[in-house]
């Protein structure tokens, strides 16, 4: 019997700075990923937000699962700054996570600085062209 190709969720099992962004993806750890990503304590995960750039609670399931290890969530909302819906902000506050929405470029730069300082930071980064 021939075994088929197994498709797995994109996941880099470590914390790494983002080396570049644009053209619909990101470069990190000598690799590239096409599409949006979540940078979490468990690693960097491929991520498909349901209605970008507006995020809902369903988009942040992995973030909430790791909430005990996250103090700051940087949200890269694409080219333009978009506010997080109040229900999302309220749930993040309940988990003691400070959420800071900003353009994806600003979120990448801030994430890299906070990661270098060994802060409890995570990022939800919507890919930009």
From TrEMBL:
<dbReference type="InterPro" id="IPR036748">
    <property type="entry name" value="MTH938-like_sf"/>
</dbReference>
<dbReference type="InterPro" id="IPR007523">
    <property type="entry name" value="NDUFAF3/AAMDC"/>
</dbReference>
<dbReference type="Pfam" id="PF04430">
    <property type="entry name" value="DUF498"/>
</dbReference>
<protein>
    <submittedName>
        <fullName>Mth938-like domain-containing protein</fullName>
    </submittedName>
</protein>
């Amino acid at each position: 019997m021939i075994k088929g190709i197994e498709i797995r969720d994109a996941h880099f099992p470590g914390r790494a700075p983002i080396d570049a962004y644009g053209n619909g993806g990101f470069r990190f750890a000598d690799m590239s990923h096409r599409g949006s990503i979540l940078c979490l304590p468990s690693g960097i995960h491929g991520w498909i937000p349901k209605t970008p750039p507006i995020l809902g609670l369903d988009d942040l399931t992995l973030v909430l699962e790791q909430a005990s290890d996250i103090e700051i969530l940087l949200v890269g909302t694409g080219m333009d700054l978009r506010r997080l819906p109040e229900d999302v902000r309220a749930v993040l506050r309940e988990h003691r996570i400070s959420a800071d929405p900003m353009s994806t470029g600003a979120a990448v730069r801030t994430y890299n600085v906070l990661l270098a300082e060994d802060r409890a930071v995570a990022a939800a980064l919507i890919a930009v062209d």
